[in-house]
């Protein structure tokens, strides 16, 4: 069995035994993934606070990159699930074929409102480094995340990871805007900083709600610094939750 596929076995088991969702009193916001009913999940980045207990969100990614006139493609998957109040798990592989690592993250929100529309979280993460071969190694990562919701206008989710072994910081930030109940423009930024290089990629995109439990996203990720992994990357996501 593929090493990346094995990462999802413990998550599925934990979700199966997690409590059913328990919601706070209605505040005019729905309970879709702990976000207001007018908002979709981030395009690809982590949410800044966990889902509510028993809630699961799965994002599937397909992308096509171009670098110096050469094109390549890959697929990714990102699963987020609420286990207990304020506690969630994230599993993510940015590339099934080409990415050298996958992530298992446990996130705890120690400060948040009752609807999880605003909050701060801390997390610990294991990066499973497969390197495309048979040898599997693990590195520990820790970080902090957060979410801010500005009425029915925009939701911001962001997080910063630090890998002490590689002395590298990774960062993500997502702004999702409300246009209508079916259309959500967004801007997402991501990158990393190490001793010898720094990257920053910006994705303008849009998400379309298909129904009450799924959405389709389109965007193009573009590097803005000299250090880069690609010249541009067209991305398509399919997002569903339950």
Question: What would you note in describing this structure?
Answer:
With 242 residues, this protein is mainly β. The protein contains two helices and twelve strands; from the N terminus they run ααββββββββββββ. It has a single domain, classed as Beta Barrel (Porin), CATH 2.40.160.40.
Helix and strand topology:
Blueprint: H1 3-6, H2 8-16, E1 56-67, E2 70-84, E3 87-93, E4 101-112, E5 119-129, E6 137-150, E7 154-163, E8 168-177, E9 183-193, E10 198-211, E11 214-223, E12 232-241
Antiparallel strand pairs: 1-2, 1-12, 2-3, 3-4, 4-5, 5-6, 6-7, 7-8, 8-9, 9-10, 10-11, 11-12
Key features of this structure:
12-stranded antiparallel beta barrel, 12 strands, mainly beta, single chain
Structural class: mainly beta
Number of strands: 12
Spatial arrangement of strands, main beta sheet? 1-2-3-4-5-6-7-8-9-10-11-12
Order of helices and strands: HHEEEEEEEEEEEE
| Mean model confidence by pLDDT | 85
Helix run count: 2
Spans of at least 5 consecutive residues with low confidence: 8-36
CATH topology descriptor: Porin
């Amino acid at each position: 069995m593929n090493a990346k596929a094995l990462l999802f076995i413990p998550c599925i088991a934990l979700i199966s035994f997690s409590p059913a969702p328990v919601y706070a009193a209605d505040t005019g916001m729905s309970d879709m993934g702990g976000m207001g009913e007018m908002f979709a999940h981030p395009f690809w980045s982590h949410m800044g606070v966990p889902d509510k207990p028993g809630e699961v969100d799965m994002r599937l990614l397909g992308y096509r990159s171009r670098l110096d006139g050469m094109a390549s493609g890959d697929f990714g998957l990102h699963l987020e699930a609420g286990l207990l109040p304020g506690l969630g798990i994230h599993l993510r592989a940015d590339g099934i074929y080409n990415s050298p690592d996958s992530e298992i993250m446990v996130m705890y929100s120690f400060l948040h409102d009752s609807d999880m529309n605003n909050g701060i979280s801390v997390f610990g993460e294991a990066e499973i480094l497969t390197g495309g071969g048979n040898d599997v190694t693990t590195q520990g990562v820790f970080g902090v995340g957060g979410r801010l919701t500005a009425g029915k206008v925009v939701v911001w989710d962001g997080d910063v990871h630090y890998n002490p072994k590689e002395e590298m910081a990774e960062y993500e930030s997502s702004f999702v805007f409300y246009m209508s109940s079916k259309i959500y423009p967004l801007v997402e930024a991501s990158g990393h900083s190490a001793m010898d290089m720094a990257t920053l990629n910006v994705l303008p995109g849009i998400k379309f709600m298909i129904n009450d439990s799924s959405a389709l996203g389109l965007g193009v990720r573009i590097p803005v610094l000299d250090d880069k992994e690609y010249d541009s990357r067209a991305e398509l996501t399919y997002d569903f939750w339950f």
